[in-house]
Amino acid sequence: MTTAGRAVKRIVDVLASGVALVVLALPFAVVAFAIKLDSQGPVFFRQERAGRDGRPFRVWKFRTMVVGAIRQGLGVTVARDDARITHVGRFLRSFGLDELPQFVNVLAGEMSLVGPRPTFLYHVGHYDAVQRKRLLAKPGITSLAVVSGRNALSWDERIKLDVWYVEHSSFGLDLRILFATLWVVLVTRRGVYAEDGTNDLFAPPPEEEERLDRGS
User: Which helix (H) or strand (E) holds 37?
Assistant: First the structure.
């Protein structure tokens, strides 16, 4: 994308995220109230992810799981029938509504409306030279990988799509992805979980790698 194209993309991001946060203020309040009624813990879930050029930032999401979920059950992996997911969280995840607070990240310039989905920081250390190209763009609320199958795709397939997007990004492509997202997330809802019901890991988290190295 040209310098002018990136400038236009940023203007669109600011305007769209600003309007979205105003329009969604009341629905956000309703969701927040439902989350608090449903389970103990904060309304929002914040976690460090890798941004453009691998720089860390804290992503905003509505909390959909019990507090401390990452230290229970499947850890960073999530399954369709995962007992750690709250009742409200299950609904939010099925329609991708838990991701909407990321408009705050877009407004702050940490994310864009469209771009590779923000990944775990430890994933970056496992990338090869080609896979690292996905870090040349800001992470997005939606992506080419999202509209192409989301978690129904393997990590290798998703990253290949992300790299293709980075190499061919344009305003027109972003518009097509945005419109396709409405269909995939709200209508077909394909790819919320992998085909076997359990989302796969790109690489074991550091704690698990240490355990495997020790042979324990």
Answer: helix 25-38
Task: Encode pLDDT of 174-203 as tens digits.
Answer: 999 999 998 888 787 777 776 766 666 777
Residue 211: how many other CB atoms lie within 10 Å: 12
Question: Mean pLDDT score of the chain, rounded to an integer?
Answer: 88
Task: Tell me the torsion sign for CA atoms 202, 180, 15, 89.
Answer: negative
Quickly count: other Cβ atoms within 10 Å of residue 121's Cβ: 17
Can you state the angle between helices 171-182 and 3-23, rounded to 10 degrees? 30
pLDDT at 214: 39
Q: Write out the E strands in 12-123.
A: 44-50, 56-62, 112-114, 119-120
> Where are any strands of DSSP class E within the chain?
44-50, 56-62, 112-114, 119-120, 140-142
Which residues neighbour 13 within 8 Å (Cβ) at sequence distance 6 or greater?
106, 107, 109, 112, 113
Q: What is the pLDDT of residue 185?
A: 83
